[in-house]
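Thread: Newbie trying to understand structure tokens

Hi all, I'm a second-year student working on a class project, and my supervisor (Dr. K.) asked me to get a predicted structure for one chain before our next meeting. I've only ever worked with sequences, so writing a 3D structure as a token string is new to me. If someone could post the tokens and maybe explain what I'm looking at, I'd be very grateful. Here's the chain:
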Amino acid sequence: MSTGNAIALISRIREKANRLIVSELEDHGIRGIVPSHGDILNVLFREERCTMNELARKIHRTKPNVTVLIEKLVEYGYVQKDRSAEDNRVTYITLTDRGESLRPVFLSISAKLNKIVYGRLSPEEAESLETMLREISNRFPAEE
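---
Reply by user tm_fold:
Sure, no problem. This is what the structure looks like when written as tokens:
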């Protein structure tokens, strides 16, 4: 078996996962949402509200990137922005009812992805896979 193909394999897996996500969303009549929106929505499914800075940190993206993604989600009516009453510089992001309605679709897509990724792996192999991927990810410089 040859080595040196990890990046190509990871890239191919990501591409296939993204295609599956977009296809599943379209099958549910959801258009305009892209996989990078999913990171934000998943955080908001777990938490009532987040600031832009918190979202950027939690999804490992720069604040300018998160701002662009949030603007699109606002445009589609999935999230809303609210200024903090205490600090006008802070903006909170929350799900709208329309955004909350995406939760079951996202859970279904996540289950399908997890079945593909972890399908035949033992719990130990799954944990080892995640440990290795986390280790590789941590070797890269953090985004600012």
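A couple of things are worth pointing out once you decode it. The CA atoms of residues 74 and 80 lie 6 Å apart. The helical segments are 6-27, 35-46, 52-58, 63-75, 97-100, 103-118, 123-138. Feel free to ask follow-ups in this thread.
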